[in-house]
Every structure is written in C-alpha cells, then in structure tokens.
Design a protein that fits this description.
The protein is an all-alpha fold. The protein is built from 7 helices and no strands. Helix 1 (13-21) packs across helix 7 (153-178), helix 3 (59-71) runs parallel beside helix 6 and helix 6 runs antiparallel to helix 7 (153-178). The longest helix is centred in the N-terminal third of the chain and has 32 residues, at 24-55.
Length: 179
Amino acid sequence: DVKRAGLMRERSAVDSFRSGVFNVNSWILFAQFACSLGVELTMENGAALYYRRKFGQSLETSAALASLFGATNLVARGMGGGLSDYCNGRMSLRGRLWAQMTCGIVSGCLIVAFGRCDTVGSAVFVMLFFSVTVQMAMGTCFGVVPYVDPPNTGSIAGIVGAGGNAGAMLFSSVFRTRS
C-alpha cells in the first residue's frame, strides 16, 4: 500500500478540492477547455441549422453534414493526447503547452474560415479540419492537467472538465442572441 510506505500522504477530498480551486492554472485550463468543448457543443447544436439557412440544404442533408463534426470525436481527442505526449517527449512540459496553444490557434483560425465559406463543399471541408483541431485541443488540455498539481489531479481535472460545460452555456447564449 503506497500510503503505508509513505509514498502518498493522507489528504481529505476537501483539501484536494481547495488546492485545485486556489490554483490559478486550474482556471487557465478551465478557460481553455471552455473554448474547446464549449465551441464543439455549440457547433454540434447549430451546424445543421447553419447548413440549412446559409446553403439551403434539406433538413436531412443538413443534419448529416452537421453530424460529421461529432464523428471526428472517435479519433481526434486521442490524437490531441498523442500529440501532447509526443511534444512532451521532445520538449518536456513546454512541448505540451506548445501543442495546446497550436491546436487552439489553428482551431480559432479555422472557425473564422468556416464562417466565410461560400459553398457547401468548402464549408464541410473546413468544418472537418476545424473539428479535428478543436477536439485535439481538448486532448492536449488534459495532457497538461496532471502537471498542474500532481497530488490534486482529480480535483483539477474536475474543474477543467466543468469549463467545457460553462463554455457551452456561454457560447450557446452568445450565438442564440446573435442569430
């Protein structure tokens, strides 16, 4: 048992959560995860309507095109985690941070490009690449979590994960009022 061997100290869940809440890095990752999962959930909710309104697609076609966004979940988050691990092997934690920043910036550029597409084909093409990068950003985000405060990884992961739901509420509210 690791606790009896002195390799792991005894802590209460309250102490762990308190440490996570008062660690500023938890909140930075919370915001980053809000911008990735929040945007993903908003896209999944609104993409079918977007294809229907902007390109005049049927309801069935719009839904089929929009579902492609979520289909990339099968591999893209794992790709982000793998990229984070690869970059960690090359540059340590700094590599993980570079991977996360790169995925975030590229996905931001791609969502702008998606909004400027004039044809269904180009919109689907850009949306797929956007989907992959935004979901890779989620994988890279959780690649950083264990390094924030190792004894409190569970609490920090919970805070970061809640950022995704907060981001979904925020982005859904913003886009609902703008449509």
